[in-house]
Each structure stands twice: as structure tokens, then as C-alpha cells.
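Notebook B, p. 112. Complex prediction, attempt 2.
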Amino acid sequence: MTSKQPLARFAMVKERHRKTLETALKQGKVDEQMQGLCSFIAGTRGFYTSSCCSGRIIMLEKRGERKTETFFHRKWHRTVDEDELIDGLAEGTSGEVWLKVDPFILHIGCLNIWGANAILAAMKNAGVKRGGIIVAKEGKFIVELQGTERLGAPVKVGRKILVQKEYIKYLAARANALLERNYRRLAKLEQEFRKVLE
Amino acid sequence: MTSKQPLARFAMVKERHRKTLETALKQGKVDEQMQGLCSFIAGTRGFYTSSCCSGRIIMLEKRGERKTETFFHRKWHRTVDEDELIDGLAEGTSGEVWLKVDPFILHIGCLNIWGANAILAAMKNAGVKRGGIIVAKEGKFIVELQGTERLGAPVKVGRKILVQKEYIKYLAARANALLERNYRRLAKLEQEFRKVLE
């Protein structure tokens, strides 16, 4: 684990991800709630983020069972207004439309298993329940962390809207509350990272 | 990693989980779709399962935001009849009731990182997308694997049923289809495990 090759490879990959993040930040492509965390991680010596999403509310159109048959009909990286959902439903779709809240997801790269364990420990302290090491190779450990605030149900199929307007309004309020809760958890995670990662 | 202590500890923990599984199987407490996989893993030399659920359809009553304020109103480890959902909704509850499909979840213990990586490789071959090493200590590696077939939305709050009967019937059919798909993925995972684990 202390040979130069893995270290050099890690440094190279970390630098590449730092540049990608820098460009994405400049272009306004990083979710607001994720900017602080990603920038902090990029500034550490031993860690980098390879991908991250702070959570979202989406309308997903499924025209079949495979992922290639699934399309974003609407996507918000923020809370929504109930009318935005109602408008989204009114617009023509042909498959089955799901309304979903997806929690944050985050991939963090580290040099070795000790780094990965530091991430897992911080995750536990932040009360984040889903996370694990998904790649474990010399010089390349990747930890995936995910929130648990979810909602997801079909609301339209073909031209038929399956639910009443009242219910859509209820779901909008519920989705917003879940997303806000998800953001609070993410902020707690950033706090824990700042305590221990170098 | 080759010192005797971790090996002995691993063997002890594996044996304890083997006995727990044996008792649970005798008492009919292991989900039918999980029995083959768990029994196979228990028979390997290098792996054990510490907990597993093959997936389920549930009605969850949330009386508050904390986990201790959440109660199972109904729980099925099988597909459901639409009338079972309608009956469940009719029965008195006071909080917010969610209808949910939870995918399978599985914890596999292994001696070391090579074992954990074998699990992750088999997982990928089976097309299971969520899984990672959640404990990484000498002599104790735990991999968590989870399916991705989910559904979850509030359907009742206080005494008020939020959705119409037609929609509940649609959700019942959809939940059943998701659970069946989840079972097929689990069967594929067992197949991949049987190819490579010893």
C-alpha cells in the first residue's frame, strides 16, 4: 500500500476529478447543496469526489422495463410548486409516468482502506444509513453514500392521469418535505467530514 | 490477515450464524425466496449471511419522523391481492400510512477483502446495482447488497384515504410486478454466487 505506483495513480485521478469539479462549479453544474461538500473534499489530501447529486424531485417516463426505455420528463434539484407537477402531468407522454424523490448520492475516492473506513465512520456519525465500499483495489477505494428519503409511485399511464389534483398537491408538499430533510442530512454529513478528513 | 486469531474469530461468528439460520429455517422464519441462497452461503467455507429479507410489500404507519414512531400496519413477504390493500386502508390508523415495496436486502460476512470483492463481482454479474462493503476490519468484512425495485407513497393520513379505489388496484398490480421482478433478480444473484463462492 506504500509503494509509489498506487500513490502516483491516486494523485493523478484525484487531480483529474479536481479539475472536472472546478469546471463544473464555474459552469454552475454542481447542485447548490453539494458545492460546499465537494469543494471541501477536493481540498483534502486523501480524498476526491467522482460523482454526486444532492437529491432531486423527478417525473420519470417508463416506456419499457429497461433503463434505456426510461426518460426524464421533468427534473428539479430543488423543492417544487404543486402547479409544476400538475403542468408536467398535463403534457403529453406515452409511457408510465412516475413521480419520484431521489435522495442524495455521492461517490468518494480514497487511497486505501483506512481512508474508506474514515468515510464510513463519518457517515455513521452523520446518521446516514446507506453506504459502502463499492471498489476496493490497491490505490483505488470508492465509497458510495446515499440518503434514504424517497418517494416513488406511478401517477399517469398513457394519456390517463391516475390520481386526482388534490392528491398531487399532497404529494408535492410531501416531496418537498422529504427533499428538505434530505438536504439537512447532507449538511450534517458535510459537517462530519469537515471534523475528521484531511 | 493470515494470523490465527482473525481466522478463529471468523469461524466462530460463521458457526453462530449457521446455527441461527438452521433454527430460523426449522421455524419457517426465512422467506421462501431467500432459503436457497442463505443455505448455500452457510455451506461455503468462507462466507455467512448475518441477515436477509427477500423483499416485501408493506403498509407503514408514520406517527412522527423518527423510526421509533413508525409501525408496520401490514406486511407481506409475497404478492398481494388488491382487496388486502383495500382492507388494510379501511382499518383504523392515526398517522400517515405509506404503501411501499421494499427490495431484497442481504448482509454477507467474509474473512477478508478478497472474499468481499468476490461478492461484489458476483453482484455485478447478476445485475444487482446497489451493494458495498459496510464493515472492513481484519477478520470481519460485511457486504450489504440491496435490490432496486421500489415503490413508496402516502395513501392515507389520519382517517382520510388520499387515493381512489381504482388507483389502489393499479398500485397493487404494480407492486406485485415489482416484487416478482425483485425475486427474479435475487434468483439470478443466487445463481452467480453458486458459480464462484466456495
